[in-house]
Amino acid sequence: MDVVSILTDKRVAPWLSGELRTADEVRDAVYLFAGDAPAKLSRFWLLLVLSAVIASAGVIGDSTATVIGAMIIAPLATPIQGVAVGLAGGELRALLQSMRILVTAGLAVVLIGAVAEFVLPQIVVPASNAQITGRVAPTLIDLVAAAATGLAGSLAIARRDIGDILPGVAIAISLVPPLAVVGITAADGAWDDALGALLLFTTNVLAIIVAGSLLYSLLKLLPGAEGVRRRPAYLVVAAAGTVVVLALSVATFRTVQLQQRQAAASDIATSWAERNGEQLVNTHYEGAALVVLVEGRADGSADPQLLPELADAVPRGTPVEINRLPGQRRALGTVP
User: Fold this and answer.
1) What is the DSSP letter of 135?
2) 109-to-26, 123, 197 alpha-carbon distances in Å
3) Using one digit for the tens of pLDDT, what is the confidence trace for 2-41?
4) 115-157: per-residue pLDDT in tens?
5) Confidence grade of residue 90 (pLDDT, cut at 50, 70, 90)
6) Distance, CA of 309 to CA of 307 (rounded, Å)
7) What gap in Å lies between CA 153 and CA 73, rounded to an integer?
8) Which of 88, 143, 236, 294 has a Cα-to-Cα distance from 262 of 20 to 30 A?
């Protein structure tokens, strides 16, 4: 018995079904090229450009409130749900049209983010910008959250009685901000960060598509073509999902490993700073370099002693920098 058959069991389906919309209503809600297409598309592109500009400004200025505002008005979830509906109903043409809109819109947001990086002043250093650092290292936790949020969004479209949860779904799922980060970091030459943000966006998109297509199939809202037209699309989604899960698994391992190294380095640096009459503020990575931020007025003569002490905490060859408040920063060299 496949997953859909299990979920459509009479003991399970009633928990998800309620006051359902009709198939035509669902299609009208997510297909930007159906019905009053000019009005839908003009609204979509207007909101997309505005949300991209707001998100780019919020990311560069490290403003959480601004980024949340961009999430609320961002319309990218509509073509993504269109892909899910096309997949569930076996409507290949509609699926491809929604995918084309999604890809074009994504490229537009990346471009706006890149332009914003060149035009707007850089107030916050990227390495300490929470809006950037929080979106360039996705993990499997992000996949779980995206899948649950995608299911909630699909339920809001499928059922009339819970449509009011869409603003919360828009805040929970991150679509436009990661793409803005892709453009900003790419324009800054930080390609690893750009790929990480792109992986986060791809994770969210696939989670919405999979959750949505399964839900629409479960509720039998979209009786469409069977067999050969739908199966290849499911295989493509499954293959893409496998690649994303593997990439997230690697990223999760690297994140945990980095946190463990950072914690070990922090313990060593704390003892070292105390011996020199100073106080450790924090240790963090900026790219491959380990930055040790301390507060005090030592002359720096004891700084080289930190390198051999870090040998048991971080890999050999790791660059180490001392940032001594207020404003004295020096490169120590690499861990032997």
Assistant:
1) T
2) 26, 21, 13
3) 444 544 444 445 555 567 788 888 888 889 998 888 999 9
4) 999 998 877 777 778 888 888 888 888 888 888 888 888 888 8
5) confident
6) 5
7) 15
8) 143
Beta-carbon contacts of 15 under 8 Å, excluding residues fewer than 6 positions away, are none
Of residues 44, 68, 46, 42, the one with CA closest to residue 55: 68
Alpha-carbon torsion angle 88, 156, 175, 7, nearest 10: -40
What HEC string does 258-317 produce?
HHHHHHHHHHHHHHHHHHCCCEEEEEEEECCEEEEEEECCCCCCCHHHHHHHHHHCCCCC
Cβ atoms < 10 Å from Cβ of 38:
7
User: Residue 83 in contact with residue 106, Cβ under 8 Å?
Assistant: no
Q: How many CB atoms lie within 10 A of CB 139?
A: 17
- Tell me the one-letter amino acid at 329: R
Q: What is the C-alpha separation between 52 and 48, in angstroms, rounded?
A: 6
For residue 19, count other CB atoms closer than 10 A to its CB. 10
Beta-carbon contacts of 173 under 8 Å, excluding residues fewer than 6 positions away, are 71, 77, 146, 149, 150, 153, 204, 208
Type of residue at 124? V
Please tell me whether the overall predicted TM-score, pTM, comes out greater than 0.85 for this model.
no
